[in-house]
């Protein structure tokens, strides 16, 4: 792909071929009273324009901390980034000036959080808050800003946008509030949206509607989208590829349907086996035994070894790298990787 974009000042940037976002060997740690919590331990992932990456993992696996590092919204200290690069269109955001960083945040990369109610200001109308984006960034007048707010509310299909533009956040349902958050993220037409559990707080049917809307807008604007979730069921239909996180590392990457059909990491297999399935009604649901590790004392070797049904001696001694997963004929499967010494055996598990 060969794209050239208008920068914020209207200066044309160089055409750039490559992923919009490329996270390389990212490490994040937190200094706490009890010691250093290693929340992110060498994350690698990338997203291109028009592509949706789902980041999947249990609570505490480092999904949000990685996103916060990308957005530059970590409190440092206690957080520290001892290693790694976060490339936006090939440029390392970690070495940019605060000013450059601020310009990318919100305008080029926007974020949607789980809890709309705490992200929106309760005493300002949603129209005002949406309009503020245009006033602050584009110098729009009050009237123009309001018109744009209504337009955005229409875009995210809030019924009767014109009449509701002066309503306050609490006057909207949870699903509608999340649509407002999506509208906020879209306002400045970013290249990339990071949505951190955007539907977790919603009812199942509303979850699907919001997810569909997000996917539709992503395709329409040809944006990159990172969907953070602990629920594979929610993202399976909209994601192109998945990165599974465990203890601050990516343990498996794959195109979404291949991961579903044939996981190559015992942790992913455990996650899939613990999703309720209609065709197995009445059967007891599998649960991965044990708990995620304490990030101040990550087990040596493969961090998953104390919980892994397949663990051998080597798993307690060596850290598995993300191995290329190959097909039976030895040809690498595009986009597939597994940080397991026994990925081949896992792939062939029934
Ligand atoms: N400010 C902080 N101080 C100390 N430790 C922190 C801080 N923020 C995060 N952590 C640590 O980082 C770990 C990873 O947190 P993160 O929020 O990325 O998890 P997550 O994968 O997003 O989980 P969830 O599904 O619950 O949102 C947490 O378990 C926590 O121990
Ligand atoms: S490397 Fe060993 S412990 Fe880790 S997931 Fe694979 S089999 Fe299990
Ligand atoms: Mg999180």
Describe this structure in words.
The chain is α/β, with parallel strands linked by helices and 350 residues long. The chain folds into two domains: 175 residues, Rossmann fold (3-Layer(aba) Sandwich), CATH 3.40.50.300; 102 residues, no CATH class. It is 31% helix and 23% strand. The strands form two sheets. It has an eight-stranded mixed sheet with strand order 6-7-8-3-9-10-12-11, sandwiched between helices. Strands 2-1-4-5 form a four-stranded antiparallel sheet, covered by helices on one side. Helix 4 crosses helix 5 and helix 5 packs across helix 7. The longest helix is centred in the middle third of the chain and has 18 residues. It is globular. The two termini are 39 Å apart. Bound molecules: adenosine-5'-triphosphate, iron/sulfur cluster (SF4) and magnesium ion. The site of iron/sulfur cluster has 13 residues, from loops.
Key features?
eight-stranded mixed sheet, binds magnesium ion, alpha/beta, 12 strands, binds iron/sulfur cluster, disordered N terminus, 13 helices, Rossmann fold, 350 residues
Number of E-type strands: 12
Helix content: 25-40%
Radius of gyration: 21 Å
The low-confidence runs, each spanning 5 or more residues with pLDDT under 50, are 1-12
| SSE ordering | EEEHEEHEHHHHHEHEHEEHHHEEH
Average pLDDT figure:
88
By helix and strand content, what is the structural category?
alpha/beta
Shape: globular
Highest CATH level, the class of the largest domain: Alpha Beta
CATH homology-level superfamily of the largest domain: P-loop containing nucleotide triphosphate hydrolases
CATH domain fold name of the largest domain:
Rossmann fold
- Report how far the terminal alpha carbons are from each other: 39 Å
